Structures are given as C-alpha cells and as structure tokens.
Amino acid sequence: MQQLTSADEELRRAASDVLVRAHDARQHRVAAAARGTSGAIYTGLSLSTARVNVCAEPSAIANARIAGEDAVETIVAVGLDPADVPIVINPCGVCRELVPNFGTSIRVIVSDGGEVGVVTSADLLPIPWVRARSYD
C-alpha cells in the first residue's frame, strides 16, 4: 500500500467536508471525492431509501463525467465513525467492479485495519467479473 500524498489528503478532506455538511443517517451516510485527470475534484453522496441504495463513488464519478473528465485518477469514500468523525471506508463489491471502468489505473484510497493508504483498482478486484458472451 502506498502512502498518501498531499493531493490524496486534499481529496479525503473534500469527501469529509461533504459528508459532515450533508450527513443524514437515513439518506446520506457516505460521501466520496474523485480527482479527474485534469486535477479537478468532484464529490458524490450516497442516496438511500427503504428499498434503494446508491453508493457515493458512482455519484462522484458521474459528476466527473458530466464535467467532461475523460477518466478518474484517484477516488476515496468516507463514512462516520461512532464519534461522528469522517473516516476512510473501502469500496463495496459493486464499486470495486464499477470504478475500474472509468480509468485504467485508478488510485483508490483505502483503510486496512485503520492504516490509510493507496492501492490500485486492480488490487481491489484482482479477478474481475466478466459478462458471459451473449448470442444474438
């Protein structure tokens, strides 16, 4: 796992600021921030209802794409610890599958037993799921 850079810390702060500002345990429990290849930061927020949950990472990636980014360079998600302090959380299985589709070597900020660092999206899903061929 690589050490965080100052740019990574900036990204983590951006996600944390969104979460602190918008947190609602019923609707918004996770925030994410993604840095596009241009260097710009795009944030996202999880959306939840009784039936549907949308992760924060796709929200941040969508905002980057809407703004015209070709790819995402780095992404992080944060949640709140029991004392309501933002902490880095790891992508869920769906996000581990989704994130690599928006950049070939996306850096993902993760927490491994409380140690925060950077891995590649390939490290998160070393044996990716592949859709079976369709026969039209």
From TrEMBL:
It holds the Pfam family dCMP_cyt_deam_1. Residues 6-132 form the CMP/dCMP-type deaminase domain. Keywords: Hydrolase, Metal-binding, Zinc. It comes from the Bacteria. InterPro entries: APOBEC/CMP_deaminase_Zn-bd, CMP_dCMP_dom, Cyt/Deoxycyt_deaminase, Cytidine_deaminase-like. PROSITE patterns: CYT_DCMP_DEAMINASES_1, CYT_DCMP_DEAMINASES_2. Belongs to the cytidine and deoxycytidylate deaminase family. PANTHER family: CYTIDINE DEAMINASE (PTHR11644). This is CMP/dCMP-type deaminase domain-containing protein. It comes from Paramicrobacterium chengjingii. The lineage of its organism: Bacteria, Bacillati, Actinomycetota, Actinomycetes, Micrococcales.
